[in-house]
Amino acid sequence: MLTEIKALVENLAPRLIEIRRHLHAHPELSGQEYQTAAYVAGVLSSCGLQVQESVGKTGVVGDLKGQGQDSRCLAIRTDMDALPITEGTHLEFASRHPGIMHACGHDIHTTLGLGTAMVLSQLSEPLPGNLRFLFQPAEEIAQGASWMIQDGAMGGVNHILGVHVFPSIPAQTVGIRYGALTAAADDLEIFIQGESGHGARPHEAIDAIWIASQVVTSLQQAISRTQNPLRPIVLTIGQISGGRAPNVIADQVRMAGTVRSLHPETHANLPDWIEGIVGHVCRTYGAKYEVNYRRGVPSVQNDSQLTKLLEETSREALGSERVQIITEPSLGAEDFSLYLEQAPGAMFRLGVGFSERANHPLHHPQFEADEKAIVTGVLTLSYAAYQYWQGLA
Ligand code: NI
């Protein structure tokens, strides 16, 4: 069957490049993927899939029904949205939508989903179980996965696979990671309320700026002294404001930041831990405070069984020299993690780097992906999906 899948992917390659270039030239922002969704639905229908549109606002679900005895359903998720960036490449298929660019490779992801649907719907023997394609909107604003889930896209799904392009891995190579792939990312906002006074008479005031600086310092020190160093936390206060004049003690400070973590237990305890430290410092110096902790997306925790499926099938399909085992997680975030709260799964990295020149990073106006990655990605997803019903218990 691998030979048949390889031949199908090779035959489809020119069409897949055409699809990718069309998507790249017509990027749409998060939550506004109307043209992309209509295009995706059209291709899926032409492959004979059952298609549902407007799932999770602008998302699309395609079902490829199995013909065998296995009732399990595997989902494949690809995201579709672009970024508010003015494209700085000189590609002939560069963005035709001013100020919007596929700078995170979601045009490639969408192409991979469509390519995999094309390949697996053309197999000489139908799949034994059900395959569901999730074309997700609004990944860049970390909303789309929850919209899709709320609309029931994960109903009946047993396992899920995902993919993201990665410019520092060469094209035609994949990166496999066991365990945590990306971090949990939460938002933090802290208000400190002191009492204003003359800059020369600090003992008659409560200095919110000085207390805020103690809070920032205490949080950083407490990470190093009270948290398990093998379970990392990055806490960045990126905004701070307060005060009215050089000689007036400030009564109010607002700070805002981002908190990244990898371990689920660490993540669960973060709001109480932060509130405890802020409260302790503020009480010591007589200030009032408010901590607003907003949960973002959790960490992507790859399931070992599904990761093993990806590793073994990609070694067989691509050759072991084209499979990298990733040893370190990233502290970036990805809302694929929300699907993993519904069903176990795994996400892999698809190399899109050029061997002959340096590449720009994701979200850069000159980011380009080596299109040779498309065949690799479709082959990896198609063969992993095919093997899912063969061996995986
Ligand atoms: Ni992305």
Overall, the morphology is elongated
Which structural category fits the helices and strands? alpha/beta
Classified by CATH, the class of the largest domain is: Alpha Beta
Number of strand elements: 16
Query: Unreliable segments (pLDDT under 50, ≥5 consecutive)?
Result: none
Provide the CATH topology of the largest domain: Aminopeptidase
Percent in strands: 25-35%
Q: Main sheet, how many strands, which sense, barrel?
A: 8 strands, mixed
Q: Roughly how many Å apart are the termini?
A: 20 Å
Helix segment tally: 9
Fourth-tier CATH superfamily name of the largest domain: Zn peptidases
In the CATH classification, which architecture of the largest domain applies?
3-Layer(aba) Sandwich
Rg calc: 24 Å
Task: Give the count of structural domains.
Answer: 2
The ligands found in this model are:
nickel (II) ion
Written as H for each helix and E for each strand, in order along the chain, the element string is: HHEEEHEHEEEEEHEEEHEEHEHEH
Condensed summary:
The chain is built from nine helices and 16 strands. By secondary structure, the chain is of the alpha/beta class.
Description of the structure:
By secondary structure, the protein is α/β, with parallel strands linked by helices. It has 9 helices and 16 strands. The chain folds into 2 domains: 2-181 and 300-391, Aminopeptidase (3-Layer(aba) Sandwich), CATH 3.40.630; 184-297, Alpha-Beta Plaits (2-Layer Sandwich). 35% of the residues lie in helices and 26% in strands. The strands form 4 sheets. It has an 8-stranded mixed β-sheet, sandwiched between helices. Strands 10-12-8-13 form a 4-stranded antiparallel β-sheet, with helices on one face. The chain has a two-stranded antiparallel ribbon with strand order 7-14. The longest helix is centred in the first third of the chain and has 24 residues, at 2-25. It is elongated and about 85 Å long. It binds nickel (II) ion (NI).
